[in-house]
Design brief:
Distance between the termini: 33 Å
Strand order of the largest sheet: 6-7-8-3-9-10
Number of strands: 10
Mean pLDDT: 89
Helix content: 25-40%
Number of helices: 10
Shape: globular
Strand content: 25-35%
Order of helices and strands: EEEHEEHEHHHHEHEHEEHH
Bound molecules: adenosine-5'-diphosphate, magnesium ion
Radius of gyration: 19 Å
């Protein structure tokens, strides 16, 4: 049996009686890249909020690496290995690209080694290989403020990866990006998928097609269907849900 990094069982989340998620079941294999799509209000962001511990289940449970995350605080769940990339980049604009990465690469060390010590060879190597991975090696000494929106997104993904999460949660990473930047972010996520489990939430169907292996469609707080891109696109239930939004599919 394949090992599951994430299992969600019969999950219901009520906000003042309104069920944003309804008896949702979901599981993710270790090392899998999954894309989640669904109309606005389907519950996609709430789904991520549940995994990170920002929102608590009303019913049901979430198992991360087999462990029930109930009442575990957000920062502890992050330390267990769940990293989240929010929609808007949160990088330090007046620091260089390299300094942004240095900050996170050193954040787990003790204060003295960060303040007094020069970065060790292995830390420099980590930063260098991250710069390579996110395709910003040539821009390492530029202030982040000078990066394009897509480059900022890639830098933030790099900062997230620097914290060595096992599960990466990425919410709409290509909203507002040019076609070229969209493709770059897609290639970055595909490269990261070789060593991480990843959940990507996305609207942009072109992008979903670029990266998707298995797709989960959320609708009104439940899983409507799951499958590869072709199966999902040809599923009559999906077509019905998106009827009137054909441009989205
Ligand atoms: P999506 O990300 O798929 O657009 P959301 O998870 O943001 O959907 O929201 C799902 C539903 O839950 C929406 O109808 C939204 O209005 C509602 N909702 C989300 N968060 C809250 C909250 N904190 N309080 C009340 N209702 C909420
Ligand atoms: Mg959302």
């Amino acid at each position: 049996m394949t090992e599951k990094i994430l299992e969600i069982e019969n999950l219901t989340v009520s906000f003042d009686g309104f069920k944003a998620l309804k008896q949702l079941n979901f599981s993710l294999d270790t090392g899998e890249l999954r894309v989640i799509i669904g109309p606005n209000g389907a519950g996609k962001t709430t789904f991520l909020d549940i995994i990170t511990g920002k929102v608590q289940p009303t019913e049901g449970r979430v198992l991360f690496k087999g462990r029930n995350t109930k009442r575990i605080p957000e920062h502890s769940i992050a330390r267990m290995g769940v990293g989240r990339k929010f929609q808007t980049p949160r990088v330090y604009l007046n620091l260089t690209v390299r300094e942004n990465l240095d900050l996170v690469c050193n954040s787990n060390k003790n204060v003295f080694s960060t303040l007094l010590g020069r970065p060790s060879v292995s830390e420099n190597k980590n930063v260098a290989s991250l710069l390579e991975t996110i395709g910003l090696y040539a821009k390492a000494d530029l202030k982040a403020a000078l990066l394009s929106h897509g480059e900022k997104q890639r830098l933030e993904i790099g900062m997230l990866v620097a914290q060595s999460p096992e599960l990466l949660l990425v919410d709409e990473p290509v909203a507002g990006l040019t076609d070229e930047e969209t493709e770059n972010v897609g290639n970055l996520l595909l490269a990261l998928a070789e060593h991480h489990s990843i959940i990507v939430i996305e609207h942009d169907m072109e992008f979903v097609r670029q990266i998707a292996r298995r797709v989960t469609v959320l609708h009104q707080g439940s899983v409507l269907c799951e499958g590869n891109m072709d199966e999902v696109q040809n599923d009559p239930r999906v077509i019905e849900v998106y009827l009137g939004h054909q441009d989205e599919l």
